[in-house]
Every structure is written in C-alpha cells, then in structure tokens.
Design goal:
The complex is a heterodimer.
Chain A lengths: L12 E6 L8 H4 L3 H9 L1 E5 L11 E7 L5 H12 L1 E7 L1 H5 L12 H8 L23 E3 L6 H13 L10 H7 L5 H5 L15 H4 L16 H10 L4 H8 L7 H15 L10
Parallel strand pairs in A: 1-2, 1-3, 3-4, 4-5
Chain B lengths: L1 E5 L3 H10 L3 E8 L2 E6 L10 E6 L2 E6 L16 H4 L3 E9 L5 E5 L7 E6 L1 H13 L4 H8 L1 E6 L10 H4 L11 E5 L3 E6 L2 H8 L4 E2 L2 H15 L10 H5 L6 H8 L5 H5 L6 E7 L5 E8 L9 E2 L2 E2 L4 H20 L9 H4 L7 H10 L7
Helix pairs in contact in B: 9-11
The chains are: A alpha/beta, B alpha+beta.
InterPro entries (chain B): 4Fe4S_Fe-S-bd, 4Fe4S_Fe_S_CS
Protein name (chain B): 4Fe-4S dicluster domain-containing protein
Keywords (chain B): Iron, Iron-sulfur, Metal-binding
Chain lengths: 278, 363
C-alpha cells in the first residue's frame, strides 16, 4: 500500500453524504474489495455513515453526495455540505437528476399522493418537487448512473489526486456496446433500447445480456431524444410507453424530460387528474 | 481437377487447422445474429440459417436447407480480430527515483483461422491493411490470420457489393476460398498456405454440372437490390451546404453504429487508465467514431458539435476524401451501416439526394 506519491500527513480528506436515495451508489465504495484498502491508503475518509464513520461537518477536500433533495431539511443540509467541501461530486441518478422520486414532479399531485399513501400524512415533511443537487448548490463533478460503478469513483478520485480534471465521458452506450461486441437488441429484436441517447459508463451491461438499455446513466451528449422517440413509435410503442422510457430514473435531465413530457401529456390528456397544479 | 470437398468432409478442414495450431473461428448463431466464434466442430455452424436484412432490421430465419453459409453477414466483419475494440498500447511505471519507465504492451497473438469470410470483408481488410501498415498491434494479429472465404450466395437486401466490385465472390486476399453447393464445396487456393491445406483434404474431382451450378449461383447473387449510385468523389466534398445534410441530421441519432459496424472505419481515441495508487498507468486505445463528441475536440473547442456536421464528415470521408487517401472509396458494399442503423438510414439514399439536387451556395 506504500504509494510513492502520497504523503500520509496531507492525505486528501473525503466524505460520503446521503440524501434521499436507496444507498445503492454508496456500495460503489463498499464493493471495491481490495481497492477499498488502496483508496483508504490514498485518502482519509472522515464521514461515511454506511461504512461507520460519522463527522458530517468536518471540512473535506472531496464530498461525494448521493441522493436527491426531497425534504426541507435536505435543502439546509446540502448548503452545509457545500460550505465544508472543496469539491462536491454527485454520485448517481438521484443526486444528479432527481432519481425515481422526481417522478412526483410530473403531475404536481404531491399532496394527493401523500395523503393517499401514508396513514399519518401529517408526519411527512417532503418538498412538492424533488431537485437534483445542482439545483441548490454548485456541483463540481457529476457521476451519472443508477447505480454508479466503482470504476467511476476510482477514476474520479485518481484524477483529483493527480490534480487534473476528471474525464467526463458523455459518449453513448452504443459506442461501448459495439466495442463489447454485443449484438444490437433494437435491430435484431425491435427492442426499444435507450442506448443511442444514453451516456456510457455501465459497459453496455443490459445489451450484453440481450435486453434493452433503460437509460439509467442519463442523457449522452447531443442526445437525439425526439428522434429516438419517433423510432420507438415506429416500433409500435404507444405514447404512454414512450413516455415511460424517458421518464424513469433520470426524468429531470432536460434532454429526457422534454421528450418524455410530450408523450406523457399526450397519453394522459383525457385524464383530468393528469396535469393539475396545486 | 481435385477441388471438391463433400460436406461430410468439412470437419476434416477444421481438424486440420486445429492440428496445425490454429484457433479456428467460424460463423455461429449467437444472440440472434451470425457471429464468428471459436469453432470446435462443424455441427455448430448455422445450418439452414438465412437472413432478412432491411434498413434498421436484422432477422435470422431457419430453413431446411443443408447449407451452412447461406446468409450474407453478421454485425461485424474481421475488424475486431485485427483492430481490437480496446487494447493497451503501452504502460508507464513510476520508478523509485521519480522517473517514468515506458514499456510497450503487445498482447500474445495466436495463429487464428477464420472460416466463412466474405468478399466485401476481405476488401475492407485490404483497406485496413493500408491504414495500419506500420501499426505493430494490428500487424501482429493480421500476420497470424488465415482467411478461408466462402463466396456469398445469399446477399441481403442491404448488400451492394456487386456495384462496388468487392463481391459477392471472394476475389483476392484469401488463403482458401469455398463455393458452397448443397452437397459440398468447390475449393480454390489463394496462397501457398491455402494450397497446402488443399493437399491435406480428401478432395474429389469436381464435375462440370457443379461448376455450372456455381456460376449460376454467382450470377444470381450479383443481382442485388441496392447499388452504389454514380457520383464524383471530388464533387461530393464540395456539397457541404446541400440541404440533404439537414434532412439526414434530423433522422440520425448520432449513435455511431454505422462506423462501429463498418469494416473499414478505423478511428480510435486514446486514454490513460492509471492505477489507483498512481504507481503506473495504462495507455489505451479504443474504437471511436466521427459521431462522438471527442472525435472533433481540439483544445477548448468542438468543431463538429452537431449531428449534421458529424454525418457529413462520415459520408464525405467514406465516399469522397477516402479516394484521395487510399486510392478507392472506403465502402465495400457490405450494407452493415444500413442494417445496423437503429433508425434505418440508408447512406445510398443520401448519396442519391446529394447527386440529384444542385449544391446550395448560400452562407
């Protein structure tokens, strides 16, 4: 574990914070195996509740933030995290684009849903709309994915240790899918694959197992979402099904939101509950 | 002339190659497509499999034909075997005195034989041979490649090799070429290695009617639905402001699949993959595409930020400036860019549009 490049006295300090999320992206650290020991030799982990370290207000060089802003107290807490951190890195779809819980933004029916679901809704203190971290504070780097991979974490940490800007790979899943020699599921099966508009980083995991990408890494650069939606219609998908392709895990990413909403509205226009504002 | 191999004796060809140390790759049905995979025996060849290929669509059909090569092609030609989708070129290692040591990383190449290679793909390989002539990573895999072609008897609707002059029969650059008939194969050698293999096989004299059948089959395969439109490559490069680019950009996903499946496309990017402790770093290269953001990035600026510019780059290079670079167009008529385009764009249609309407001169 002796690294010639790191003086233990000034090891960068990191924190891993959790907001509204499933905790799955933090597993990208915990699942590192031996690399977790290497990481621990390179950095000092001050706050990481899932791993047992607790010091939320310690000043750190890198704060990794999982989860979306879904409750009033989270709005306050993220400002504290920002104030204590040199670099703030979001990890995963929730932190970066709102995640699944941001689906509540689509209908503007937060209160109705809350009252219908919870036995004692007066104990629930949630925001009417879920926001990604960048909506509230400055974010230095976004790691997309649901969940993110360990490789993304290590690449980001390594780049920051070198003092260089981490590579932000915004290429499409398709490019990696072809490098992996996976067979295109859209062309051979007519499957509504999101690969052509989705950011790489997963290693084309789903297509390699014969199923269509569902966009969990969010939009790629120049995502031609409208064009792909037209293709989905050509493959026989109804508007509601097309909306669900784009409005799933990364619904608040503008490229997906715009296209998804077009089909979401057209699929619910006959339902009075659809577009009500509170 | 002893040049006929009964189908029942085809396993002996595989066995001969295995005995001589080759890893043998052959076409097999994997994940709804024809892929080259390690071939233990001939019983895994795609017997009776035929294809329907249309723009954006690729389907396999099971027939009761005894033939094992009655399909046009799969999603990849020979390209992944010689131009690796991702590989480490060199590694830099930090020394105790703070200096860096660089070492070349050449993967072990094993002699590999590929059965079922098409004429279009051999022509594309010849183009890649030109491009990667001085590339040691490419060369070591290429030099160890034994190529056994099978003349294409069932071109797909997306094929147009007859019009580019690269098929349907294998014309050059093979070691051994087979013409498949219902009950066996007519063989011809293209190299000393191929001739040596022929002497080791239980060949029988071929009959006149078998050659007539092969000729008729070839003529039939030459009648293809699509053909490359006539155009002037130099003129194509001047068509930068043509409205056809806007039309195709509206339909194009910029996914780059056309370039990834193209057997002659050779673009790559390079990146550093450091160890976490910073003690060493692998310098890798991987397939890139002129449809990616990074392809047109120079310090601080993307000079092809949109799909229109990227599609124009691809088409004008492949069919236009390629001629200047390599003495011929980069297209060998395999039709993969048509079949494997998720939205079914046909570049031949774009070429037709570019040729039909006058070039616009505004802007």
């Amino acid at each position: 574990m002796n690294s010639p490049m790191t003086d233990p006295a000034d090891k960068p300090r990191i924190a891993v914070h959790k907001f509204s999320s499933c905790d799955g992206c933090q597993l990208a650290f915990l699942n590192l195996g031996e690399a977790l020991l290497q990481l621990n030799a390179q950095v000092e982990i001050l706050h990481f509740l899932e791993a047992g370290m607790s010091d939320a207000d310690a000043p750190v060089d890198i704060a990794f933030v999982e989860g979306s802003l879904s409750t009033p107290d989270e709005l306050e807490r993220i400002r504290q995290v920002r104030a204590h951190s040199r670099y703030l890195v979001t990890i995963g779809a929730c932190a970066t684009s709102g995640g699944l819980q941001a689906l509540r933004n689509l209908d503007g029916s937060h209160d109705e849903w809350r009252d219908a679901i919870y036995a004692r809704p007066e104990f629930i203190h949630t925001l009417k709309e879920v926001q990604p971290i960048a909506a509230e504070v400055k974010v230095d780097l976004e790691l997309w994915g649901c969940p993110i991979s360990s490789a993304q974490v290590l690449a980001a940490v390594r780049a920051l240790l070198f003092g260089v800007v981490p590579v932000d790979d915004r290429d499409r899943v398709c490019l990696e899918c072809k490098r992996q020699q996976a067979v295109c599921v859209m062309v051979t099966q007519g499957a509504p694959c999101m690969g052509p508009v989705t950011r790489t980083g997963c290693g084309a995991l789903c297509p390699r197992f014969g199923r269509d990408c569902y966009g969990c890494y969010g939009p790629s650069e120049t995502a031609q979402a409208d064009t792909l939606a037209r293709r989905f219609a050509g493959l026989g998908l109804l508007p509601d099904a097309i909306a669900r392709r784009f409005l799933l895990i990364n619904s608040q990413a503008p490229a997906f939101l715009h296209t998804g909403q077009v089909f979401y509205r057209s699929s619910t226009q006959d339902q009075p509950a659809g577009d009500q504002d509170d | 002339m002893h040049d006929y191999l009964p189908r029942a004796a085809l396993p002996q060809l595989i066995q001969h190659l295995h005995r001589h140390g080759y890893t043998v790759l052959g076409p097999q049905v994997v994940d709804n497509a024809i892929l080259y995979r390690p071939l233990a025996d001939t019983d895994v060849l795609p017997t009776g499999i035929e294809q329907v290929q249309r723009p954006g669509e690729y389907r396999l059909i099971q027939t009761d034909s005894p033939r094992q090569f009655s399909w046009a092609n799969g999603p990849q030609a020979l390209k992944p075997l010689t131009f690796a989708p991702r590989e480490t070129l060199w590694r830099s290692t930090l020394q105790t005195d703070g200096s860096l040591r660089f070492e070349e990383v050449l993967a072990d190449a094993r002699p590999t034989a590929v059965i079922g290679v098409r004429g279009c793909d051999l022509a594309a390989l010849a183009l890649q041979d030109q491009h990667f002539a001085a590339d040691p990573y490419y060369r070591q895999r290429r030099d160890d490649l034994l190529l056994i072609a099978v003349d294409c008897s069932h071109p797909a609707d997306t094929c147009f090799c007859a019009s580019t002059g690269d098929g349907p029969a294998a014309e050059a650059d093979y070691d051994l070429a087979l013409t498949e008939l219902d009950d066996g194969f007519l063989l011809r050698a293209g190299s000393d290695r191929g001739r040596a293999i022929m002497t080791a096989l239980p060949l029988q004299p071929s009959r006149e009617d078998q050659h007539r059948l092969a000729d008729s089959q070839h003529r039939h395969a030459c009648r293809q639905l699509r053909q490359l439109p006539a155009f002037d490559p130099a003129q194509l490069i001047q068509q930068g402001q043509h409205p056809a680019w806007d039309t195709v950009a509206d339909a194009c996903l910029s996914c780059g699949n056309c370039t990834s499946v193209c057997p002659s496309c050779f673009c790559f990017s390079e990146s550093e993959v450091p160890e976490l402790d910073g003690s060493s770093s692998d310098h890798q290269r991987q397939w890139d595409s002129c449809f990616s953001e990074g392809h047109s990035y120079i310090h601080g600026h993307h000079f092809r930020p949109d799909t229109k510019g990227r599609y124009r780059q691809w088409l004008t290079h492949k069919f236009g400036s390629w001629v200047e670079q390599y003495g011929r167009s980069g297209c060998t008529g395999c039709g993969r860019c048509i079949s494997w385009c998720p939205v079914g764009i046909d570049p031949l249609q774009v070429l037709l549009q570019l040729g039909r309407e006058p070039a616009r001169t505004e802007k």
